[in-house]
Amino acid sequence: EPLIEVREIGKSYGNVIALRDVSTTVAAGQVTCVLGDNGAGKSTFIKILAGAHEHSSGELLIDGVARHVSSPRAALTLGIATVYQDLAVVPLMPVWRNFFLGSEPTKGVGPLRRLDVDFMRRTTKSELSAMGIDLRDVDQPIGTLSGGERQCVAIARAVYLGARVLILDEPTAALGVKQSGVVLKYIAKARERGLGVVFITHNPHHAYPVGDRFVLLRRGRSMGEWAKSEITLDE
Ligand code: ADP
Ligand code: ADP
């Protein structure tokens, strides 16, 4: 059974039909790529999975159960985490603090709770290294990391928070070829760990190296879905 099954989903904004009868699946250990130019409906598709918008028609099955995901928090409860292109990080704070942003473990009693800094440092380091990123120093401000490394930290954080499905919004679009390579390796690692990944991009070249299946959207419609063995890319 797939983690997510999207069945003929549609979404309208007033008179504008942003998605029409789009179907696909997200399976554990697979990368589903959603491709399309501007206006194709990619952001709308993300928002529906991420709990930011509800679909107008069709069905969204999560673990076989039809759902309307009503908020990002509800999405995370269902195991779906979204990593956006513009990451919400605090550049001057250490990597470990960003890793735990909003969910910092504390020690002690009373009104002054002490952050469990040792735990956060240790966990950040081990979670990152389990995914193949060895940071010299998790105390450095996250702003000093490369764009690719920051993207990896965001993905590792989602995995740590219990995500089974990662929705990645243009994870390589703002990166050069080398940094993209870092992120693609990381995505491959997540797949190895059995996560289902949705890779959303306007550029097929970015998704092709790690993609298992490819859905092409155009003006809100699905032009089809193919396995990697069924497609090739022109330069
Ligand atoms: P993409 O991310 O692939 O560029 P979008 O999902 O953003 O595509 O947009 C799909 C279509 O829906 C476009 O025609 C866009 O103008 C329209 N659209 C997106 N968001 C809204 C909105 N909030 N209100 C009205 N129309 C929207
Ligand atoms: P863009 O239009 O996004 O700048 P191009 O389509 O011009 O990217 O990229 C040209 C080639 O360089 C492609 O074949 C692609 O393999 C590679 N490339 C460029 N940027 C990236 C990236 N961020 N991730 C992966 N490959 C890239």
Automatic annotation (TrEMBL):
* Domain ABC transporter: start-end pairs: 4-235
Key words of the record: ATP-binding, Nucleotide-binding
Keyword Cytoplasm in record: no
Record flagged with keyword Nucleotide-binding: yes
Molecular-function GO term, any one: ATP hydrolysis activity
Q: What is this protein called?
A: ATP-binding cassette domain-containing protein
Q: Which organism is it from?
A: Solicola gregarius
Measured against the full-length protein, the chain present covers 3 to 237 of 277
